[in-house]
Design brief:
Blueprint (H helix, E strand, L loop, with lengths): L22 H4 L2 H62 L8 H23 L6 H71 L6 H34 L5 H23 L3 H19 L4 H100 L14 H10 L4 H44 L10 H18 L3 E8 L2 H8 L1 H18 L6 E6 L2 E7 L3 H17 L14 E8 L7 H17 L5 E3 L8
Parallel strand pairs: 4-5
Antiparallel strand pairs: 1-3, 1-4, 2-3
Length: 635
């Protein structure tokens, strides 16, 4: 074995010392190789992830086009076609006059309206402003059609009234005929007799004069009867007038005729005038009355004009609907085009990113090989071999390589072992003393943390049985309390009351005022319920959602009823506004049950029957209390 008398000189300028501030210097040979392969793998993984991201982005954009934008465009077309069908189904409503036609037309309108609602419900991809405008137009169209349906019903009703008025007119004419026909016949017979007498060689002048005087009395009756028939004919014709001006003109003519007839009637003898007064009054009502033929026809003509006007408005609405749907379709197609451009830009951007990342990865691997392998691993191996030669030669005061955790560092540590033994012993003794002090401090800290943990556990135990929103007991604590109170009441033979209450129309309250307002409402109801749990054994709990329970030990039926009524009234007195409730404020329905425990029933039976009483209160209109007497031992 060769021996050196002089230490070998080492070029320390090229060596990189292993210290706490040099990460690369602390790496082992295996770690260096793993780092190199890891860097290369990371570059490849990054490239793969970038490719996957680009593919995912493209797929997502295409999926949005296929699943959102294109279906929205198709549904827009469907809404437009359904609106046109609905408008077309409403056109015949302006001309209906029979119940059978009404049923057929209403069925068509209902079918078109159902199709429109289905199409409108499936339209979700349009812009918010355009969609609101379209919904407003369709709502206006629906309202117009509903008004036209009301007009159809009114028109049919008017037709029935007109038919009844015509029957009354015929009956009126028959009444006049009953009073006047025989007098007209007398007039005609006397005229024939006078003509026969006048044709004799020696006519009886006195007789002819008497008969002529009688004819003079009956002539106004004949004229009156003729005028009555003329008025009836004009009235029937006027009931078929096509326009309001024509109808008004007919009314003026009829009024003039009635005034003339009334003057003639006043000249009749008293008995005849009284006989004809009632039929003439009926005739005037048929001409001038609100339920007369003229008024009924006028109302029908105004309804027809309103129907035509509504049809015209509907045509304008459909034009606006077409314009709105065209805008929505164009917006959808523009969105598809923009999405395609965004996909292309994203693809180009990430392709450039992939190229840059790959290039940087290769540059990083090359720098790692240079700075780690060449400047650290090879240099330290040269230094370590030289130091080992110097130690073998007996030169202990030479500079030794630094110790470390890597393979080369552990070899350097072996060279420092003997020189550092004493120093390490003193350091271990000092470290042991410091460690004892830290252990004592740690024990004191553990005791302090244990005390804090007991306090925290107590708080957690309290929180585990409380509802976080209302502060009442939760369902878990309620079940425990109901079981224990049922057993206690059974041992003492005392009654146990259970109240179950539920907020009326609370879902509609949340929908209108929001969940924050709903939570505030639940908190207020919970506070009122807690105020009614006055005795030490009373348990107020939130059963779930808007449902609450109150357990009242040693409480009979009358006391339970009083508590339930007081609780219901207290919540009603709060007057919390609830516009979607028929009561206008927040109310509760309460079902309560009272029983003395025995072998025939359990606490679950009590809860079930109280719940059934609650459902009975709901069925009876809400905002009330109900009790079911079902258990065998009812107090």
């Amino acid at each position: 074995m060769p021996r050196w008398t002089e230490p070998v000189q080492v070029d320390h300028d090229r060596c990189q010392f292993e210290d706490a501030g040099s990460f690369l210097a602390r790496l082992s040979i295996r770690s260096s190789l793993i780092l190199g392969f890891g860097a290369m793998s990371g570059v490849m993984a990054l490239a793969v992830l970038a490719a996957l991201f680009v593919s995912s982005s493209v797929i997502s954009s295409v999926g949005e086009i296929l699943e959102v934008q294109l279906p929205a465009t198709v549904n827009t077309f469907r809404v437009a076609r359904a609106a046109e069908a609905l408008g077309a189904s409403g056109i015949p409503l302006a001309f209906l006059s029979t119940a059978n036609e009404r049923e057929v037309a209403f069925h068509r309108v209902d079918t078109a309206l159902k199709t429109l609602k289905q199409s409108q419900a499936s339209l979700q991809g349009a812009a918010e402003g355009t969609n609101e405008e379209l919904g407003s137009l369709l709502s206006e169209l629906t309202d117009n059609l509903q008004r036209m349906r009301d007009i159809v019903d009114e028109r049919i009703r008017l037709r029935l009234l007109q038919r009844g008025a015509r029957e009354m007119l015929l009956a009126n004419l028959l009444a006049f005929q009953q009073h006047l026909t025989y007098r007209v016949r007398i007039l005609e017979g006397d005229s024939d007799v006078i003509h026969s007498l006048m044709s004799q060689p020696s006519p009886p002048v006195d007789r002819i004069a008497n008969m002529a005087n009688q004819l003079t009395i009956l002539l106004p009756v004949a004229r009156f009867y003729g005028e009555i028939e003329a008025v009836n004919g004009r009235l029937l014709a006027a009931s078929q007038d096509a326009t309001l001006p024509t109808l008004n003109l007919s009314l003026q003519v009829l009024n003039a005729s009635l005034e003339s007839i009334e003057i003639t009637l006043d000249r009749f003898p008293g008995g005849l005038s009284r006989e004809l007064a009632q039929p003439f009054a009926d005739l005037k009502r048929l001409v001038r009355g609100e339920d007369g033929l003229i008024r009924l026809r006028g109302r029908e003509l105004r309804l027809n004009e309103e129907s035509l006007a509504l049809n015209h408005v509907n045509e304008q609405i459909l034009e606006r609907v077409d314009a709105a749907t065209d805008n929505m379709v164009r917006s959808g197609l523009d969105a598809v085009s923009r999405t395609g451009l965004e996909v292309d830009v994203t693809r180009r951007r990430y392709f450039l990113f992939l190229v840059i990342t790959t290039g940087l990865g290769f540059v990083g691997v090359a720098l790692l090989m240079h700075f780690q392998i060449d400047r650290h691993v090879i240099a330290r191996l040269s230094w370590l071999s030289t130091a080992m030669q110097n130690v073998a030669a007996g030169h202990m005061d030479v500079s030794l390589p630094p110790a470390g955790c890597s393979e080369l560092g552990r070899l350097g540590a072996a060279l420092h072992l003997f020189r550092e033994t004493a120093i390490e012993a003193r350091e271990r003794e000092s470290a042991l003393h410091a460690s004892n002090i830290r252990v004592e401090q740690a024990l004191a800290l553990v005791e302090q943390k244990a005390a804090e943990l007991e306090i925290a556990n107590a708080k957690l135990q309290e929180l585990s049985v409380r509802d976080p929103l209302t502060g009442l007991f939760n369902r878990r604590r309620f079940d425990q309390a109901l079981t224990s109170e049922w057993a206690r009441a059974g041992h003492g033979g005392k009654p146990l009351a259970l109240l179950v209450l539920d907020l009326d129309y609370f879902k509609q309250y949340n929908d209108r005022y929001g969940h924050q307002a709903g939570d505030a409402c639940l908190q207020q109801v919970g506070s009122i319920l807690q105020n009614h749990a006055r005795r030490a054994g009373d348990v107020a709990a939130r059963f779930g959602g808007e449902e609450f329970c109150l357990i009242c030990p040693y409480t009979n039926k009358e006391q339970a009823e009083s508590i339930a009524q007081s609780l219901r009234q207290s919540i009603l007195d709060q007057a919390l506004p609830h516009e979607d409730s028929p009561f206008g404020v927040v109310t509760v329905s309460i079902g309560y049950m009272v029983a003395t425990p025995d072998a025939t029933c359990t606490s679950d039976d009590l809860l079930h029957l109280a719940d059934q009483a609650l459902y009975l209160a709901k069925d009876k209109g809400r905002n009330c209390i109900q009790f079911i007497e079902t258990l065998p031992t009812i107090v």
